[in-house]
Structure formats: C-alpha cells, structure tokens
Amino acid sequence: MKAQLFFLLLASIHPLVSQPLESYTCKKSPNALKIDGKLDDAAWRLAPWTKDFIDIEGTSKPKPRFRTRAKMLWDEQYFYIAAELEEPQLWATYDRHDRVIFHEHDFEVFLDPDGDGLHYFEFEMNALNTGWDLYLAKRYSDNGKADDGWEMPGLKTAVHLKGTLNNPTDKDKGWTLEIAMPWSAFNRGPRPALPPKNSEEWRVNFSRVEWMLDVVAGKYEKRKGLKEDNWVWSPQGVINMHVPEKWGKVKFIQ
After folding, report:
1. pTM of the entire predicted model
2. Does residue 3 sit within a domain?
3. Which of 140, 114, 135, 83 shows the shortest CA–CA distance to 249?
C-alpha cells in the first residue's frame, strides 16, 4: 500500500511516470538483408519508422536538436535494426571493440527477451562501426554488474556516412546504420536462444547519446562542463536506460 501511495504521489509531481510506452509491430522479412548501412533493401519498405526519438526524461524536456528514428524486421536467423541519425558533426574516434562507446556520439540497443527485467542485453555502436556488447543478469540498481566479456557471435553491423567523419571544416547530414543480431546470441537466462514465436513480445529500447562539440586546433572536442544529451525511442522518465519496464514493446509477427 505504501508503495502504491508513493508512485501516485510521484506521478502527481512528475508526469513522466505515467507516460505510455512506445510499441512497434515488427514484420518478418521475406528475405535476408544485406547489411551495408544504406537501408536500400526492398524489404525495409515493409517496416515503418518509429516515432522520432525524444529526451530520455520525456516530452516535458526540450525536443532533441537532431532527428533520430529506427525501424525493425526479423527472419529465422536475425533481428534486424536500422536507424537514421541526423548529424551535422560526424564524430567518432573509438576504433577498439568494447570501449565505452557512449563517451562519444553513439547509438544503443537494449533488449529484454522475456520482459522480466532480468537477463537483458545492450549493444552500442558509433559512426566508425565500432561496437560494445554487454549482458546484465540484473539491473545496476539491483547490484547487477555488466558483463562486457560477453560477445554476440554472428553479429553484423554497418554504417553509411552522409558527410565526412571528424572533419570540422564542413557540415554533415548524418549517418545510417544496420544491425543484424542472431537469435542464437541471446543465450543467457532461462529463455532458449530461438527466434520469437508469432505475436511474441520483447521489451526493446533505443538510445542516442549526443555531445555538444567545439572545434579546438582543427579537431572536435566535447564542450567542457556539459553533460551528454540522451535521446530515446521510449522515454525512461529518468536519466537511466537501465529501467527495463520503461522500454518499448516490440511484437514479432509472421
């Protein structure tokens, strides 16, 4: 009873708590996709775009400066994700796998196959196509620890740049990306690593980390004294992606 009263009070002073979750119907692709970052496979026309990303805390916060949106497909081997990121300053220097990618601009994927807030997965990538894959048996707030030694075997990723990387002398348009995550990679926890059944729902969210940049000695540098922006598909209500019950719902259909 006390917990219910607490959340009612919190909702009255913080309307983001009651903000509805996003949802998406993920269609089955008629054929395997070529992962080159260009989003020009005919199958992508079957997949609608998500709503434009908003601030991680919700609609009460300022609208993101740049547009971000995603789309999804699946087949018997892979969960396919595409994203389009408007970006006038293409910047990425991390080129080693499993670096902490969000210390620069990045795109992130969070997946909880059975939606119980346990045994979930995270993947981050940048415009250099450098990735960081993580597994968490439970969230950080429950004393969980990220296992970044976990790898996603069979993962395919690619980026396509609409501009020039790390060049402050011009204005870029942005970048697109494609990800193919094999179902066999989700081999932790009680759920078998199999493709979803028809109408099965997963909890999924996407995040984009964006930094304010200055040009110093001809190179991009993060603006001192400012934190990153966090733009997401389904708002968390707090500046914390590790609240799986606030992730969106993706329904897989044949």
Report:
1. 0.91
2. no
3. 114
